[in-house]
Structure formats: structure tokens, C-alpha cells
Amino acid sequence: MSHPLLDASGISHSFDTELFSNVDFSLHPSESAVIVGRSGSGKSTLLHIFSTFLKPDEGKVALFSKDLYAQKDADIEAIRRFEVGIIFQSHYLFKGMTAFENVEVATMLSETKIDDALLEKLEISSVMKQKIGELSGGQQQRVSIARVLSKKPRIIFADEPTGNLDNETAALVMDVLLDYVKEKGAGLVLVTHDEKMAARCNKMYTLEDKVLKEMV
Ligand SMILES: Nc1ncnc2c1ncn2[C@@H]1O[C@H](COP(=O)(O)OP(=O)(O)O)[C@@H](O)[C@H]1O
Ligand SMILES: [Mg+2]
Fold it and tell me: Between the CA of residue 176 and those of 16, 121, 125, 169, what are the distances in Å?
């Protein structure tokens, strides 16, 4: 079997109280995994730990076969910029710019090209000349997903990416994410409360009572 994209072991983290301890998690190319659990259980924190943003109190995160938090800050930032796709609920779009310019900035930063087929699939081709402020919340969400996928990340972390979308648009976003994973041999780690989205992933984990468990 191929090397895992992500291999985390013995992860523990506390803020005021302990959120979770001894978490093991791994993800291989072309795999999608979903993490479910109650609000406040630490799902977002775990995604931050996996995705370069937060060094855990204990444990090791191997991302692309390298010890993530043992690397220099500049190297961690380069991984975040070039290799990791992060879709969190608050989308970081530049409001005064058009949708096209927003995607263009992302491709310039990551030295890639805008993928017209991706814009078609996300059904945003026709709104790319409009300013972000003129778009609906659901359209903005899809522009931010286009930004992330245009970077051609090797792994995608998505924290409730369909939370603000209607069912049909949510299903379309999920299609795009899973197609991307399949076509590119990338990985997807998803956090969602939506059972239909969760059921479409290869593996399901629950974060409950400070323990991450794989459901089989
Ligand atoms: N940066 C932080 N500083 C202090 N406490 C935090 C921080 N981030 C999250 N928490 C706390 O950790 C707990 C888990 O939060 P979070 O990971 O966002 O859970 P979930 O995504 O499962 O709802 C919450 O009680 C939250 O208030
Ligand atoms: Mg959360």
C-alpha cells in the first residue's frame, strides 16, 4: 500500500480542559474520512492540528511522511500554501474583488492555473465577473472551494463545508470534493453534521468522550 498522506499518532490536546488524548488517525491517497461528534468535542481543534495550524500538546503528526511540527516555521508555511487545502466555514474571500480575481490570487500564490472545468462543475462560471459582495452565501462558499482546489492540494481539510448550503448545493460540493480526491489521488478529511455527506466518505470516525474511534 502507498505511504499515508497523513499519519497522526498519540495526539493529545487541552485548552482549559483536556479535549482528547491518544488519538491515532491516518489517511492514504484517494481516501476520504469523516469525523463526527457533538459540538465542542474538539473536531475543529483536531483538524487544526492535522492541517499545520496547531501543534498538539502530545503526539506526532506526519504529513506527507515528514514530522510536521518538527519542521521550521517557513517550511510549515510552505506546506500550508502549496500542499494543503483548507476549507473552513468562514471563507476568506476578498470582498471588494470579483470572484475571478479571488481565484486568480490563489493560483498566483500557489503557482497553478485556474481550472475552468472546476468552475463549471461548481456552477459558478457565470458569476466569476461579479464582486464577492454581490454573490449569495452559497455562491461565495463555492468560490472559496474553487480557490482551495485551484491550488491543487494533496490533502483537503474541510470543516463543515456544506453547513450553510441547501441540500442540492451541498450534494454538488460533495461531488466536486470526492471527484477531486479520486482524480488526483488526494485525501479528504471532512467534519460534518450532515449524515448524507458523512455516508459518502470511505471511513467514519466519532470523537466522543475524548476518544477518536473508527466506526466499522
Ligand atoms: N483557541 C482556543 N482557546 C481556548 N479554547 C478553545 C480554543 N479553540 C477551541 N477551544 C475550546 O475547545 C473546545 C472544542 O472546540 P472545537 O474544537 O471547536 O470543537 P468542535 O469543532 O467539535 O465543536 C470548546 O470548548 C472550545 O471552546
Ligand atoms: Mg467545529
Answer: 38, 7, 14, 11
